[in-house]
Write a structure and sequence with these properties.
- This protein is mostly helical.
- The chain has one domain.
- It is 67% helix and 0% strand.
- It contains two helices and no strands.
- The protein has helices at 10-35, 40-52.
- The chain is elongated and about 60 Å long.
- The model has no long low-confidence stretch (mean pLDDT 82).
- Zinc ion (ZN) is lined by residues 47, 51, 57-58.
- It comes from Methylobacterium nodulans (strain LMG 21967 / CNCM I-2342 / ORS 2060).
- Pfam families: CbtB (PF09489).
- InterPro entries: CbtB_put (IPR012667).
- This is Cobalt transporter, subunit CbtB.
- The chain crosses the membrane at residues 20-42.
């Protein structure tokens, strides 16, 4: 039996890491910007979403 191993080239691995970092920064930015927004409706929507997903809140 031949074991098949797949390895990413260093370039592809770097691009995947970049994609993960960009997505994480955008997602966290959206979460924090809406969470700390002075607009009550936007803040409440983010707050409700956090409670719905069992994020620690208050
Ligand atoms: Zn809360």
């Amino acid at each position: 039996m031949v074991a098949v191993t797949r390895t990413l080239s260093p370039v592809l691995a770097g691009e995947r890491l970049n994609a993960v970092l960009v997505a994480a920064i955008l997602g966290l930015g959206l979460l924090f910007m809406s969470g700390f927004s002075p607009a009550a409706a936007l803040h409440n929507a983010a707050h409700d979403w956090r409670h719905a997903h069992n994020f620690p809140c208050h």
